[in-house]
Amino acid sequence: MRHHDADMRTLAADLARAGHSTEATQLFRQLGGNYRQVFTPSYVLAWTGELLCYDIAEKAFLQTKHHIPERGAPVILNDDDLYAFTPAGLIPLACQTQQDGFCFSIHIENGHLSARSDGTVAPVSHVMDWEKFCVLQYQQT
After folding, report:
1. CA 45 → CA 4, 31, 50, 101, 141, distances in Å?
2. What is the pLDDT of residues 29-63, one digit of tens each?
3. Distance between CA 3 and CA 31 in Å, rounded?
């Protein structure tokens, strides 16, 4: 597979989505070399395989495929707090996380966040296990 970079990237992304971040990181390192990473944000990944984003103008959560780059930002997890990761810096988001092993739920003012298959994110009164979020994270070298 050393000569098939595109296949390795696809496999690494699939592994990351499935929660195997260590194995995904190893594949990404084989592609890009073993360089020290200075800042590696922990992106929040929904069960749909999309990244969780925050539209700053609308003050609303959405997923990658509905993400508007001029008005939104990917959401990252840092020390159990969520932030919008903007070019100007991190913007803290008014929500709380509750860890449940590998996954976590996100609590907002009017319920829990739930990603939908159509790319939206909606509040629900209670969150099912499959609705929880996980982290796409790289390890420091």
Report:
1. 26, 22, 6, 15, 22
2. 777 655 444 557 888 999 888 889 998 888 889 88
3. 10
